[in-house]
Write a structure and sequence with these properties.
Blueprint (H helix, E strand, L loop, with lengths): L1 H21 L2 E2 L11 E2 L3 H7 L2 H32 L6 H8 L1 H4 L2 H11 L6 H8 L13 H29 L3 H9 L4 H12 L1 H16 L3 H6 L11 H10 L4 H31 L1
Antiparallel strand pairs: 1-2
């Protein structure tokens, strides 16, 4: 375990600790090379929570995360149940669906950016052909539609991830249980609610928690599609931290936003570990 421990300390532990320390200092482009950094305590956090952009980024991140998880979990769960059936080409088609998850996120973001484009975007062309809209809509320009655009893009990425994890959980359920239920005359709904869901509890918890963590810290998808705009309508904690650090060169405030993101995900991880321990005890 020693090599793995050294790797974790060097490439994960040190950056986290250094970032936490940086959040309590005043480091910008003018003071970056100073040997002694000014200690300002929680002043960075006080200023940030007075900042309108941060107060918009937190709910934006939550809305994006919850909106993405709900749809990608429901669709992924339905696809997992469907492809768990024994029929021709079920496994090859399920494998093809994983392409959406394996494509680099930046490529997916560019693809959806073009699809939601006002000029020549396939979304506008499709909706106009159905006579749902009369003229092209600039989806990524209006604050009311930009959030939905990036949520739809993230759902497309997350569905295969949810599907494959739930499919793995379905494969661990013994077939004898369903055979016994058939003999007892159980309906499909009864088998689903009294056998499938209870026995998938641990898999569902893992999917939701991992999905929350992966989605909450999203950066590349949002930055490529909207860069946090328009007017901070899609500004996330991750994109705001990046802008503070590498656009405004206020490294301490950028680190502080990253620390806020880390604390939220750390609490979620502790909650998940508590659930796992309770399951083991039971």
């Amino acid at each position: 375990m020693l090599p793995a421990l050294l790797f974790m300390l060097a490439f994960i532990g040190y950056p986290i600790i250094n970032n936490i320390i940086l959040g309590f200092q005043n480091v910008d482009v003018m003071t970056f090379n100073n040997e002694v950094k000014e200690f300002v305590g929680i002043q960075n956090y006080i200023e940030l929570f007075r900042d309108d952009i941060l107060r918009a980024a937190i709910p934006n991140t939550l809305i994006f995360t919850v909106g993405s998880i709900i749809f990608q979990f429901v669709v992924g769960f339905a696809l997992a149940l469907f492809f768990n059936q024994n029929f021709t080409f079920s496994k090859p088609v399920r494998g093809l669906l994983m392409v959406a998850w394996m494509i680099p996120v930046t490529v997916t973001a560019l693809m959806f950016k073009f699809m939601f484009g006002a000029n020549g975007g396939i979304i506008n062309e499709f909706l106009m052909n159905l006579h749902i809209i009369s003229k092209p809509v600039e989806w990524l320009v209006y604050s009311g539609t930009a959030m939905w655009a990036i949520i739809i893009a993230n759902i497309w990425i997350g569905i295969p991830f949810n599907m494959i994890l739930i499919t793995t959980g379905l494969s661990t359920i013994p077939g004898d249980i369903y055979e016994s239920a058939n003999i007892d005359g159980a309906s499909r709904f009864e088998k689903f609610f009294f056998i499938t869901l209870p026995m998938l509890k641990e898999s569902i918890q893992a999917v939701l928690v991992l999905g929350f963590i992966y989605t909450f810290k999203v950066f590349d998808l949002v930055y490529v599609m909207t860069q946090g705009g328009p007017v901070n309508a899609t500004e996330m904690l991750s994109t705001y931290s990046y802008k503070l650090s590498f656009t405004e060169f206020n490294f301490s405030k950028g680190a502080s936003v990253a620390n806020i993101l880390f604390i939220i995900l750390f609490v979620v991880s502790l909650f998940y570990l508590r659930l796992v321990r309770e399951e083991e005890v039971m």
